[in-house]
Design a protein that fits this description.
By secondary structure, the chain is α/β, with parallel strands linked by helices. The chain folds into 2 domains: 158 residues, Alpha-Beta Complex (Aspartate Aminotransferase, domain 1), CATH 3.90.1150; 238 residues, Type I PLP-dependent aspartate aminotransferase-like (Major domain) (Aspartate Aminotransferase, domain 2). It is 40% helix and 13% strand. The protein is built from 13 helices and 12 strands. Helix 4 links the parallel strand 3 and strand 4.
């Protein structure tokens, strides 16, 4: 058991690796030059950035020249989409999925207003796309296929290699959002040859917030999203975030040395958490494929419970979790990912994403299980609907409104 706050929201952000923090400290003191400057002050910082680029390239198994540093996933995803479309101006069709992150879906849906035809592939109950649907929808007019390697809410892993092969048969470019995959899965861009663009974000694998990287294959067309100076070989203007980049490089180096060990530990902690919750809580379903998913991610639906009340009580108990993407926190709308998966309404509003990390300890998991079980029991006892008409596979809209109205007063 532990009395410390327990952080189980590691798909939103992660604890900065001490090695990364230590690597950054000199940049706040003696090494403070502008990396674009030719004098020694600037070149010392440039040296640290290029070391980080080498570590990130090793993480992705690609050339250093194919790594473009930026501010993070949203910028990387936007850049990749616009670069691909600029490289294929004669094609007006984009394919993505219904379960992508908002930084992909929102920009692609915006492009629909500019005349592009958009196809959002469906997913099955386990969160997997249908490759036959992709084969039926793709054509010689398809410019881009954009899909995430692993879903940020459920952890479900997509068949990116198979999807990429299909895209290449029609000459389409391929973008992969690998933000959740980095640090949790092996990425080998010398093997995944169908991928033209790939995005990662440092703070998702124990770097600092505000720094990410975009892989751009040498053969892929490119258009800078941000113009100005000639930073990043003319591909991303603006003085580099040296602190964030160096921390990301140090975090990447840790992954490069210890990925298998980290995966084993995260899977052990996730499975311990899942087993404990299923043993101590009634009416719990696991959302998404339990086999083909990230080693750290568990999305559990607690039936007949209001999710907002559950999150608030967990926070009061010093347990940090989320209902889905941190970019949508504060929204009362059901998760678009779980809706696309046809998760029963009786569970969708009580679904919680639990994400461990390589720093998560057994004592934290055990303490979380006990606290969560107690809170779930209390919420069901408090609810006037927990043992009556909501005990069915799906809640009616009227019952849902009653449920939310009741817990708004709790």
């Amino acid at each position: 058991m532990t009395d410390r706050p327990i952080f189980l929201d590691n798909n939103s952000t992660t604890f900065p690796a001490p090695e990364g923090v230590e690597a950054v400290l000199p940049l706040f003191g003696e090494i403070y030059g502008n990396p674009s400057s030719t004098h020694s002050f600037g070149q010392k910082v440039r040296h640290e950035i290029e070391l980080a680029r080498e570590n990130v390239a090793k993480l992705l198994n690609c050339k250093t020249s194919e790594v473009v540093f930026n501010s993070g996933a949203t910028e990387g995803n936007n850049t990749a989409v616009y670069a691909a479309l600029d490289g294929m101006p004669e094609r007006k069709h984009i394919i993505t999925t219904r379960v992508e992150h908002a930084s992909v879906l929102e920009v692609i849906r915006y492009l629909a207003e500019a005349g592009y035809r958009i196809t959002e592939l469906s997913v099955d109950r386990l969160g997997h796309i249908d490759l036959d649907e992709l084969k039926n929808e793709i054509s010689g007019d398809t410019a881009l296929v954009s899909l995430m390697w692993a879903n940020n809410e459920t952890g479900v892993i997509s068949p990116i290699n198979a999807a990429g092969d299909i895209a290449k048969q029609f000459g389409a470019l391929v973008h992969v959002d690998a933000v959740q995959a980095a640090g949790k899965l092996k990425i080998d861009l010398k093997e995944e040859l169908a991928i033209d663009y790939l995005t990662i974000s440092g703070h998702k694998f124990h770097g600092l917030k505000g720094a990410g990287a975009l892989f751009v294959r040498e053969s892929a067309p490119f258009l800078p999203l941000i113009r100005g100076g000639h930073h990043e070989d003319g591909r991303r203007a603006g003085t580099e975030n040296a602190m964030g980049i160096v921390a990301m490089g140090a975090a990447a180096a840790l992954v490069n040395r210890n990925l298998d060990k980290h995966i084993e530990h995260m899977k052990k902690m996730r499975d311990r958490l899942q087993g404990g919750l299923l043993a101590k809580c009634e009416d719990v379903i696991i959302n998404g494929d339990q086999m083909d998913r990230l080693p750290n991610t568990l999305n559990a639906g607690f039936k007949y419970i209001d999710g907002e009340a559950l999150l608030m009580m967990l926070d009061a108990a010093d347990i940090a979790v989320s209902a889905g993407s941190a970019c949508k926190s504060g929204s009362m709308e059901p998760s678009h990912v779980l809706l696309a998966m046809n998760v029963p309404l009786s569970a969708i509003h009580g679904s919680v994403r639990f994400c461990v990390s390589r720093y998560t300890e057994e004592g934290e998991v055990d303490a979380a299980i006990d606290k969560i079980a107690g809170i779930v029991k209390r919420l069901r006892e408090m609810s006037p609907f927990g043992h009556t008409e909501t005990r069915q596979d799906a809640l009616s809209a009227e019952a849902l409104e009653k449920h939310k109205a009741y817990f708004a007063k709790v």
